[in-house]
Write a structure and sequence with these properties.
Layout: H1 10-19, H2 24-29, H3 33-51, H4 54-58, H5 63-80, H6 86-101, H7 108-111, E1 118-125, E2 128-133, E3 136-139, H8 153-164, E4 177-181, E5 187-191, E6 201-205, H9 213-219, H10 224-235, E7 240-244, H11 250-257, E8 267-271, E9 283-287, H12 301-308, E10 315-318, H13 325-334, E11 341-345, H14 349-363, H15 370-380, E12 383-389, E13 395-409, E14 412-424, E15 429-432, H16 440-444
Parallel strand pairs: 7-11, 7-12, 8-9, 8-10, 10-11
Antiparallel strand pairs: 1-2, 1-6, 2-3, 4-5, 5-6, 12-13, 13-14, 14-15
Helix pairs in contact: 3-5, 5-6, 12-13, 13-14, 13-15, 14-15
Domain Bacterial type II secretion system protein E: 139-389
Pfam family, one: T2SSE
Family: Belongs to the GSP E family.
């Protein structure tokens, strides 16, 4: 009898009757997955809570835990729906395990074989999910090529709530948008109605943990000479901005650059939300916090930069400058924290230093005249690395520029820059420009030499 001595539902009775002589295909045809999940999920949840401790269930990524839970769930499924094909039973059990331990239909993109390849997950609505693999976006499908989707809008909301539970963030009618860092470091941005017109939407940026400079070279993100040049600039404590468009790989690139920082130099990272995983042992990580329901307790990146200046770091890394924290970042770069780094959104190095940074510093509302802001940028930033995502989906360096100071142009005063490396679209390769790199004396203070041919 299905599930012990409990009374059978209408669906169970129909399926059970089919076992007693009704046509097998009819039994499969009348199967309703939604009804199945509604009936068996609470029972499976109770079984798991009975058989496993809270400590065991805390590590939902544990392969051992998933294997044990899968065995329990499969036993229940087989006991209830013996009329269905074995592959169907296994798939149902796996889907139920993903629901109980993970993120439902999104779980394979976090813990499955595709987890390391998927860099972005987009839930356009409950029945339409897209993913990005190796820079190319496509509709998410399962191992059989069928589109991956939630059971309904409520299921989508339930998974979103599960994602947010350990983060302390919330989403509801009074606050229908939320940004959060998931436990694995992924960045989540979600909206619900009425802001999201067609139902719950989610954008999840998966932060790859396996990226190194060697892999950048393998993927064609830059060439060896450029990699050696940037390594020298990091070791020589130049202040670096990594700029680029959305999804151009700024955070990942910054993470790899930071691996060149010597181990004896202390680092403080400041993010909102936190996603950097520096390959460094001497790191203190700070994360901004939004206000609570009462509108109290907000901690901004500006607050944390101010805190960091009192914590005696050698370098400060702001994951992304968006607003007034750019003013504090420029101050840190210009007052004894050489070798600091940050990222920002810009379409070119020129735009980064002469427009985006200027606008963000103005947001700090410090009353600085325009010329003083330009002087602050020119005196603080040494290098700008511009990234882009090209039409093929490849993320690569487009140009590397040295900041040369203030200069007078026909349009007025500006922060001067010159390209050291640039992408040549005709050759399909990078080239070293004829511009001389002038900060070799800065590098020499730390015993660093540029690779041959860069001077």
């Amino acid at each position: 009898m299905p599930l012990g001595n409990r009374p059978m539902s209408g669906l169970q009775e129909r399926l059970y009757a089919s076992r007693e002589g009704r046509d097998y295909q009819e039994a499969v045809g009348i199967f309703n997955k939604e009804e199945f999940f509604n009936q068996i999920r609470p029972q499976a949840q109770k079984q798991i809570q009975t058989r496993f401790t809270l400590q065991e269930l805390a590590d939902r990524h544990s392969p051992v835990l998933r294997q044990k839970v899968r065995a329990v769930v499969l036993e229940m499924v087989e006991g209830s729906w013996i009329n269905l094909p074995k592959p169907t039973l296994i798939n149902l059990a796996e889907e139920l395990v993903n629901d109980l331990l993970g993120y439902g239909p999104l779980e394979p993109f976090f813990t499955g074989e595709m987890a390391q390849r998927v860099t972005e997950i987009k839930v356009l609505r409950w029945d339409l999910i897209r993913i990005e693999i190796d820079g190319k976006e496509m509709i998410a499908t399962d191992e059989n090529g069928r589109p991956v989707k939630f059971r309904d809008e409520q299921h989508c909301r339930d998974v979103l709530e599960k994602m947010l539970a350990p983060t302390g963030r919330r989403v509801d009618l009074s606050s229908p948008r939320v940004s959060a860092r998931l436990p694995d470091g992924s960045r989540l941005m979600a909206h619900i109605p009425p802001v999201a017109v067609e139902g719950t939407t989610m954008s999840i940026r998966r932060f790859r943990m396996d990226m190194t400079m060697d892999k950048f070279l393998e993927y064609g993100t830059l060439n060896r000479e450029m990699a050696d040049f940037l390594a020298a600039c990091v070791k020589g404590r130049l202040n670096i901005i990594v700029s680029g468009g959305t999804s151009s790989g700024k955070s990942t690139f910054l993470n790899v650059l930071a691996s060149y920082i010597p181990e004896d130099e202390s680092i403080i990272t400041i993010e909102d939300p936190a996603e950097l995983r520096l390959q460094h042992s001497n790191v203190r990580r700070l994360e901004a916090r939004p206000a609570n329901v009462e509108g109290q307790g907000e901690i901004t990146q500006r607050d944390l930069v101010a805190d960091a200046l009192r914590m005696a770091p050698k370098r400060i890394i702001v994951g992304e400058c968006r607003r007034g924290e750019a003013f504090d970042m420029m101050q840190a770069m210009g007052t004894g924290h050489d070798g600091s780094m940050t990222t920002l959104h810009a379409n070119s190095a020129e735009e980064a230093v002469n427009r985006r940074l200027v606008n963000m510093i103005q947001m700090a509302d410090m009353g600085l005249p325009y010329e003083a802001i330009l002087g602050m940028i020119a005196g603080s930033v040494d290098l700008v690395v511009q990234l882009l995502k090209d039409r093929t989906g490849r993320r690569r360096v487009d140009h590397i520029c040295e900041v040369t100071g203030l200069e007078k142009r026909d349009t007025g005063l500006a922060v001067g820059i010159k390209k050291i490396y640039t992408w040549n679209p005709e050759k399909g390769d990078w080239e070293r420009t004829k511009e001389k790199f002038t900060k070799t004396d800065r590098l020499a203070l730390y015993g660093v030499e540029l690779p041959p041919g860069v001077n």
